[in-house]
Amino acid sequence: ASYGPNPICKGCLSCSKDNGCIRCQHKLFFFLRREGMRQYGECLHSCPSGYYGLRTPDMNRCSRCRIENCDSCFSRDFCTKCKAGFYSHRGRCFRACPPGFAPLEELMECVEGCEVGQWSEWGTCSRNNKTCGFKWGLETRTRQIVKKPAKDTIPCPTIAESRRCKMAMRHCPGGKRRRPAKTKDKKKKKKNLMERAQKQHSIFLATDKTSQ
């Protein structure tokens, strides 16, 4: 309908020049449109965004959805389509899906996600399958997948993780003590310097005798 000095009362059973439709024909929905400080009645086949059709014996009406961020709803408390950027879940709208549910982007819905159990205790600190002989190693903990996701495209959270740990026994019982490579290199370098110094000293003594 076009509202102005002469409103068009399409689908109305009764109409007011100032307020538009007052009553609608059967099967149509009465919608009260607000424009600034004024309001006008319209008779529609379907209710606009943010409203749902409420059928009553007296007259069908467009009632506002009471769910936050809802674009269209089935009833006052059940949303069927959320506004852009929100996911639909059990008649509600969410910016992010609740725990245990994953977003299905193509439908903007929350579906059952991958459910995992509790983390196990941290395992034994080891390195190269040994629990001794090194200063540092790795320890690992795991958790099981309790429920697989509704769709294969939905990834599961990580089920294993490792962290650096300090060995309880740096030296293995009965084994040779491991020496860091750096220590060996230092000793070798020191030995070479000593040998070079001794050689230079011998040359100096021989030269000194010759000069005498």
TrEMBL record:
GO biological process: Wnt signaling pathway
Every Spondin-like TSP1 domain range: 114-167
Natural source organism: Scytalopus superciliaris
Protein known as: R-spondin-2
SMART domains, sorted: FU, TSP1
Organism lineage string: Eukaryota, Metazoa, Chordata, Craniata, Vertebrata
Region (Disordered): 171-212
PROSITE patterns attached to this UniProt entry: TSP1
Primary residence: secreted
